[in-house]
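EI: anyone free to look at a 451-residue chain?
SC: sure, send it
EI:
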Amino acid sequence: MRRKMPYIVAIIAGLSGFLFGYDEGVIAGALSSLRQAFTFSPWLEGCMTAAVPFGALFGSLAGGWLADRCGRRGALILAGTLFSIGAVVSSLAWDAASLTAARLAIGLAIGLAAVAAPLYISENAPARHRGMLVSFYQLAITLGILGAYIAGYGFEGSWRTMFAIGMVPGVILAIAMATMHDTPRWLMLRGRETEAHGALIRNGLGAQAEAELEGIRRSIAATPATVRWSALFSRRVLPATTVAVGLFILQQLSGINAVIYYAPLVFHEAGFGSHGAQLLATIGIGVVNVAMTLVSMALIDRIGRRRMLYIGFAGAALSLAVIAGAAASNLPWLNAVAFASLLAYIAAFAISIGPLPWLMMSEIFPIDVRPLGMGLASIANWAFNALVVFAFPALLGMVGLTGVFAGFAIACLVGVIFTWALVPETTGASLEDIEARLSSGERLRDMTRVA
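SC: here you go
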């Protein structure tokens, strides 16, 4: 049972990823019905759609502080509770404003969980399996998106049911986390050494628990008693901050959430006629997203973080360029080209650009600034998520499918250069080893593969 505990930890914490994905994807199937139920101006529709990432921005801002003050476990219990409340209010919404407010609350929960869940998993995971286990969170996101797409097709026209379904995993998350232990590193930060040792034993370390505990003890002893946001921009931590924030900005500028939120609209622009056909094509995106995330989990601890980022950014850039070119040529078989290229783009994203920013932000920050650093990275993620989602309909009207997807392709090419110049290889290294090498003055970029 102890050998399985890190997997149980990852699966339960990953429920927050499912909720994240579901509440992002559900709007794609519900938007058509919502337009009939409520009166939306273009501005109000943009606000309602972007309410989740906008709320998540503020949830991320508080997430690091709450994960530090209340524990990683306590933060996830609060997130599950907020998820459930937001889902209920969304399903009972009486006008566009109430729905927007409910989605804002869901966004707060998503932002909080986006900091706490990867942190909880990474601090409980053995170094040799950390990449795969943290990627459970990204897998859960893709399963949530697929679940939302299926709900949108199965309950087409019944948006209240679609929103209400989100309450169930929220309740399960809150209850399940209440039965779990917190992370050994947080327990040690609070001086609860006996509980930390017990958590390491339950995580399956056995005879190695004492050595791991000593490593955590030394790491904490070397850290300052109080930490300010300014520490993230110190000479010691700035390289980690640049990598974590930069990867999330590039992840969003690759256009993923424009596709996730507005997939039916993208397929409409690409020539898919009926709304049902658009939703079925959208489900195809969800299936590929899940399948390639599973592939990523199998490879992430084998071939290295940097190599996977190269594959992801280059593959996404090529796929997006093909879509832009096909749209510019106005070919009669544009829908087939667009569908195949979108699937290739989703595959490249899911195998690399999707999971790796979440994983790397949980690895590269020193323990004293880890919650704050992950909070700042998540803020960057949600700020650019909201920007892309809010701006996408207007950009589509201004420059068309060609211009929008060409811009996304350029961002992915920048991602290749960014990876080469700044991103370290952390595969196989313990969190304490990464921290020690960063504190010694070694450049993150110079870190080579350990295992």
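EI: The CA atoms of residues 22 and 144 lie 4 Å apart.
SC: 👍
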